[in-house]
Write a structure and sequence with these properties.
Transmembrane segments: 20-39
Number of strands: 8
CATH architecture of the largest domain: 3-Layer(aba) Sandwich
Low-confidence stretches: 1-46
Mean pLDDT: 85
Shape: globular
Oligomer: single chain
Protein name: Chromosome partitioning ATPase
Strand order of the largest sheet: 3-4-2-5-1-6-7-8
Domain AAA: 53-225
Keywords: Membrane, Transmembrane, Transmembrane helix
Radius of gyration: 19 Å
Order of helices and strands: HHHEHEHHEEHHHEHEHEHEHH
InterPro entries: AAA_dom, DNA_Partitioning_ATPase, P-loop_NTPase
Number of domains: 2
CATH class of the largest domain: Alpha Beta
């Protein structure tokens, strides 16, 4: 596969691939494999290190995006990396989870101003940030974020300015954090376009179900066609993160095998996430980290391993 042969010559291969895009159907690679190569063969040397904006993504819902966003942020903070979680999903699941976590300190939290209010009034996003714990903060969302797509579409802006509105707003705080994670809904919308245009990296969530694999393929196609080709997005794919639904069942292994064939083994995270009841419990109680509790310890160890691999993939020391 091309990503193996040319993996150190990023700038050359991306130029070649763009020239050959009309011949995709005549290569031995599938259309989606080609798209993934295009996404992942950009010059990543310029994007390694800290001050990165990342989103866990898949077109299919229920792949663990929000839980993974929250827990990766938590573990990165525990590893000493300053991390900001930004909830861009009007359903506010990430906000609810982190507020429940913060409320364990018997702290009252008010979401005012909302992310939407900050954006439309051109206010500094720092005004809405809430500290969760050492090295971890949250920029919460409220239901009014449902109006963002409609609002930005009505502004007298160019099409590119409409899809980069959030990116411009985040520019003022990006340097303050090692990592910023943006959480989104699984639907394709102008809001999500803003999120992906703002990102340096995407982690593709792959629940080990056939629909999730198809969702990952469809999402990459959307990204290539609507953001990279149309608006020259610089977003890149950090890796495919498998989420095992039933440990190591035949279906899990079958989907993983298909993913390796489709994307290449090196493009899948070595560490995987397994379905854990403790993560579901966190939705009710907030994130807990009792070092004497075997279930807390087991859950955090899984996400810590993924967080360390993320850091390693980015070349962060």
């Amino acid at each position: 596969m091309w990503y193996t042969v040319y993996k150190y010559n990023f700038s050359f291969i991306i130029k070649v691939l763009r020239k050959l895009v009309s011949f995709v159907y005549f290569t031995q690679c599938s259309v989606y494999s080609m798209m993934y190569i295009v996404l992942n063969m950009k010059s990543t040397k310029m994007k390694r290190g800290k001050n990165m904006i990342i989103s866990c993504a898949n077109e299919k819902g229920g792949t663990g995006k929000t839980s993974t966003t929250a827990l990766l942020g938590w573990e990165l903070a525990s590893l000493g990396h300053s991390t900001l979680l930004v909830d861009c999903d009007p359903q506010s699941n990430l906000t609810d989870l982190m507020i429940k976590t913060k409320s364990q300190e018997n702290t009252e939290i008010t979401i005012d101003p909302s992310l939407f209010a900050l954006l439309i009034n051109h206010r500094d996003l720092k005004e809405g940030i809430i500290r969760i714990k050492d090295n971890l903060s949250l920029l919460p969302v409220a239901s009014d974020m449902n109006l963002f797509s409609r609002w930005v579409d009505k502004q007298e802006l160019t099409e590119k300015e409409k899809v980069t509105y959030l990116k411009e707003a985040l520019g003022s705080i990006k340097k303050d954090y090692d990592f910023i994670f943006l959480d989104v809904s699984p639907t394709m919308s102008l809001t999500n376009d803003n999120v992906f245009m703002a990102c340096d990296w995407l982690i593709i969530m792959l629940q080990t179900q056939q629909r999730s694999l198809l969702g990952a393929k469809s999402f990459l196609e959307y990204l290539q066609t609507n953001l990279i080709n149309m608006f020259d997005s610089k977003v890149d794919v950090l890796g495919i993160l498998p989420v095992l639904t039933k440990g190591q069942s035949k279906i899990d292994n079958s989907v993983l095998k298909s993913a390796i064939s489709e994307f290449g083994e090196n493009n899948l995270f070595t560490n995987v996430i397994t379905a854990m009841e403790r993560v579901k419990r966190f939705d009710l109680t907030g994130i807990t980290e009792d070092h004497k509790n075997v279930w807390d310890k087991a859950t955090h160890s899984v996400y810590t391993a993924v967080a360390k691999e993320l850091v390693n993939r980015l070349g962060v020391k």
